[in-house]
């Protein structure tokens, strides 16, 4: 018997498509076989056939699924001063999948992993792509590639290199495994006691070697960057995205904008004093954080004024409970504290992030032909960003993952019924 392709029509809600355009009031989103058939005004929408489903979403605002472009799904806190693997590769893959599933349930339909150990990000990516497990889209970088003794040397998954040849080989090894991007540790950061946040730790020829290898394969390079001088060097040498930018002046921001370099600010990190204290972080990390906190927001304000393309990432787990919501939602809220409007903040977490990830043709906006990655919000987050906290529906590739709304019922839970998917780093584990 020939199967009839049914279309589901979500009617009566507001559509915020992620492109920066104003909301369509009384919109229609039509989804067939996992893809968007139509997104726009009710007046221009096709009529449902007898076999189609119609869901009334009046009172809701429909948005593209959110991105988290800076995640370590195997995050284990507090950071140690030395390499120690408390998970092991098998358990790490399980932990990483659980956290990926939690990200999806909380509205994050795409996760960009920027440094993980033991191939866990590759494993989760492959399992989701093959349909073995339900989860968000995953972009994998493998381990962060750093200078010998550099930022992240206490992470069991980091790959330490010295000299352009070693960096070149490390980048090629990750491309061989199927990396979607390459992540380097170009400057110091918060995690280690022996480094300053703005210390430059890679030489120009080492940076250039990684950029050349990655770009030759059509991949982007993400760089951990704390200080103004190293950011300028990274932009000059062709790095594609700056991660963090704790200290950055107006001239450097203008340089980024002119070059088209993306910025993933991870504002959550410099607001995470209580979070890190609760996880037992040592005093030196909290002191560094206090030093960076005000400067970080000022730096991102410089970027916003200069017109740098801002993308959404947290450095905390995408679903981490943080300041009354999840880390991802809080990051989008923080964008409005550094100069973006609510509509621009949503665009940063959807279209902009999709561009950075190289998946804009597939997802990131509510437009015909794209995958139906959708969240539905009670309220008007394009006008009141805090309404983003009230996610009632999550759809990934047309499949309803989570729903607590009339006419829609779904409760995807890989941990089984009645187990809370609250997120977090699972200290008790």
UniProtKB/TrEMBL annotation:
Residues 61-399 form the Amidohydrolase-related domain. Pfam families: Amidohydro_1. GO terms for molecular function: hydrolase activity, acting on carbon-nitrogen (but not peptide) bonds. PANTHER family: ALPHA-D-RIBOSE 1-METHYLPHOSPHONATE 5-TRIPHOSPHATE DIPHOSPHATASE. This is Amidohydrolase family protein. It comes from Gehongia tenuis. The lineage of its organism: Bacteria, Bacillati, Bacillota, Clostridia, Christensenellales.
């Amino acid at each position: 018997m020939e199967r009839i392709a049914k279309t589901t029509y979500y009617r009566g809600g507001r559509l915020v498509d992620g492109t920066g355009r104003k909301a369509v009031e009384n919109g229609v989103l039509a989804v067939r076989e996992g893809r968007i058939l139509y997104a726009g005004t009710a007046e221009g929408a096709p009529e449902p056939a007898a076999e189609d489903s119609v869901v009334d979403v009046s009172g809701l605002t429909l948005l593209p699924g959110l991105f988290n472009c800076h995640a370590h799904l195997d995050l284990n806190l507090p950071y140690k001063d030395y390499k120690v693997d408390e998970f092991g590769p098998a358990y790490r893959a399980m932990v990483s999948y659980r956290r990926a599933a939690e990200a999806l349930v909380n509205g994050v339909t795409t996760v960009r992993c920027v440094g993980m150990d033991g191939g866990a990000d590759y494993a989760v990516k492959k399992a989701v792509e093959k349909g073995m497990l339900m989860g968000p889209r995953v972009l994998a970088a493998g381990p962060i590639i750093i200078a010998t003794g550099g930022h992240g040397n206490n992470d069991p998954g980091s790959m330490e290199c010295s000299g352009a040849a070693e960096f070149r080989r490390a980048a090629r090894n990750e491309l061989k495994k199927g990396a979607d991007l390459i992540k380097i540790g170009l400057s110091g950061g918060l995690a280690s006691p022996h480094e300053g946040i703005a210390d430059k730790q890679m030489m120009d020829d080492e940076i250039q070697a990684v950029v050349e290898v990655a770009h030759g394969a059509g991949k982007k390079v993400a760089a951990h960057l704390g200080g103004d001088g190293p950011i300028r060097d990274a932009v000059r040498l062709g790095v594609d995205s700056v991660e963090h930018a704790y200290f950055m002046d107006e001239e450097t921001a203008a340089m980024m904008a002119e070059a088209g370099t993306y910025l993933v600010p991870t504002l959550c990190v410099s607001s995470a004093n209580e979070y890190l204290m609760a996880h037992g972080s040592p005093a030196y990390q909290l002191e560094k954080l206090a030093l960076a906190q005000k400067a970080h927001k000022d730096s991102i304000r410089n970027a916003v004024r200069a017109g740098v393309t801002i993308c959404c990432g947290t450095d905390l787990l995408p679903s981490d409970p943080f300041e009354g919501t999840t880390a991802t939602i809080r990051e989008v809220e923080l964008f409005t504290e550094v100069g973006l409007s609510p509509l621009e903040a949503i665009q940063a977490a959807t279209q902009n992030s999709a561009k950075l990830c190289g998946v804009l043709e597939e997802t990131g906006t509510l437009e015909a032909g794209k995958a139906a990655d959708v969240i539905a919000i009670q309220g008007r987050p394009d006008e009141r960003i805090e309404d983003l906290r009230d996610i009632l529906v999550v759809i990934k590739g047309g499949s309803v993952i989570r729903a607590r709304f009339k006419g829609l019922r779904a409760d995807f839970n890989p941990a089984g019924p009645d187990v809370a998917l609250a997120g977090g780093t699972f200290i008790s584990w």
